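pasting for ref. prot 1 ->
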Amino acid sequence: MSQSDSSKSNEWITQSEKDALMKPIRGTQNNIITAVSGAVVLGNHVKQTGNDAINGAQILGSNIKKGAQFVYPYLKEGAENLYSEAKTLGKKAYKNTEDAIKLTVFLCQTAGGCRRPDYMVCSGSATTLTGAITINLHNGQSYIGKGLDSSPFVRSKKHNGVDNSKESIKKWSDVLGGSGSLGFIFNKEGRASEGTNNFLDGLGGGAGVTLRNFRVGVAQPVNTDWWNLTTPKAIEIGLNTQKVGWDGGISINEKSVNISEEYNKVKEKLSK
């Protein structure tokens, strides 16, 4: 036997067997390398996506900041104009309070003596929509009213386009408005509290005129004859945000909380 043959026979594993064993190992190594490379690529994409999101958020934040800086002066000027108009209107309304008291006393005297009001109503309007809170001053029953105001249909009250200028703020004073009045009901049916409840509950209509922010109006339930002087009617006297003008509309009142009863409940709880 030759020396080469002797060395081959002494080998524990042949080269072909080694190759057969290493083949799957090399394949696994290649798969691992491929997976690691894919993970690196995916990580780069995720990182880039994160960077893009951060950049986009920074750009959005910058645009929002620029927009706020651009709009703020206009909002500030509009708010200052609105505050100035409201302040001036408040001063005028305060000055007219004395005239309102004098006229109320005069109307009371012409009606045969002063009398306590039956209800108090505070109302607000935006274009043709109105809302009001009415309180029966005899028993504290409150009502929530909602309806339509006819005065914005007047041509002088229609405005196209409103911005933050002083002229537009004055336009809004026509479109938006509010008033507070005391109501005196005549020809009430039943006791004072019940008659006032019957008058206020349900569908009603009214109209009024305003001069120097002082408003005088009339109101009555819709289900009664307007021209029949013996049916319940009310005279309303109060103040209006509108300096000069008229108003008229229809609304429906729904019962809400009884302020007197709620006050007594709170009073009882506090006394315990």
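and prot 2 ->
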Amino acid sequence: MRLTWRSASVRQLIRFLPTLPARRSIVTGVKSYTALHLHGRRDIFETILRKISGMLTAAKSVGLWSADYTRVTGQALVTARVVQHQPQFAWREYVYTGSGFRSVISWAVAVLRLWAAVARGQITTLYLVCSRSHWGFLRDVPALLASMVGARVVVHAHGSDIVDLLASRPYSPLARALYRRCEIIVPSAHLLEPLRKIIKIPLHLCENYCMSVGTSVSHKPTAVGEPQALMVLWNSNIMGSKGFFLLAEAVHRMSEEGHAVRLVSIGRPIGDDTLSEQGARDQLAALESESWFEYLGQLAPDSANAMILGADVVSLPSRYRSECQPLAIIQAMCAGRAIVVSDIPALRETLGEYPARFVSVGSTGAIGAILDALRDLLREKLSDPVAFGTRRQAPALAAVKRFAVSRFDHEMATILGGRS
């Protein structure tokens, strides 16, 4: 029996192998396939094994340059998804971890390993999850330099401040020079035109994804035992610039007015340019005695999904300069929740046609604007609870399709599998 790459047996086997449990050997996979489908014939087993061995030898080698992606942040979750669900690539990871002096050592080791691989020709494509901060850019310089010696460098920019990095900082000319031989992936279309005006390089749009919560958009669970209350969920890390404390103050005022309202928060405090991590922790601790507030910390994905489905409103009145396409809002859209967000281009692009309340947070009236939106939503819920729970069903189903994880995986495979 003569086998070629077009033979049905080989094509079926290639579809069969990814269904095996993780870390199962190729030999075991081929044996399983021949036993199930080809009656265990040894000659076919050996021929297919040679074909698969050749396929693996020719597999595209993709390097990953990234900060630690085991943390619970949107960028880390997306990075983990890319690495774990693109098995057709031979991944080599160059990840720096830790903090302080330990992170410097980890970064230096990653640089040495990366450049040793580049020198030996082991990297055909480098997938660079970029940092847009001042120090983050400096950390990325050694990886960006790989493009100067012929490696294909594909930069995944998860923040809107990629435009600032390339256009408005003192070192932007250096950044543009380093990026000139690279390609950039962005999750939001609002970044494409500004980037095209700054630098003439290949740009790819790959929107983020949503998992799990979209399967339950056909019904609307409400806060158990509180049908007359408005349950507001904060589903993001707690940062000053993200607007968490603006939202908390708006809920506080609404509660003082006598309205039945609760704010439930998940996520962890993180420092930023507006508030240190310790400052965020201190302000969060002061809220925990309030009857209208509940802090649950970081939750496992299934538990977080349950909280989204049990909420009336998800809010993100963000002033975060890097805000781009937050997974928290994508999850809320796919679950059919009411949404209150800041009126900024990134969130306008993310919401698209989905009905949401956009509030201005760039002025002293930010808290009042959030409060007005929450009052309106409570009135809407009390006037017709059934309609409140179902009127976003069609937009939610559209969001589930738009942010399908299969679409994300396919688009990333296409981008990373480009020219060698």
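The two ends are 34 Å apart (CA to CA).
The longest strand covers residues 61-67.
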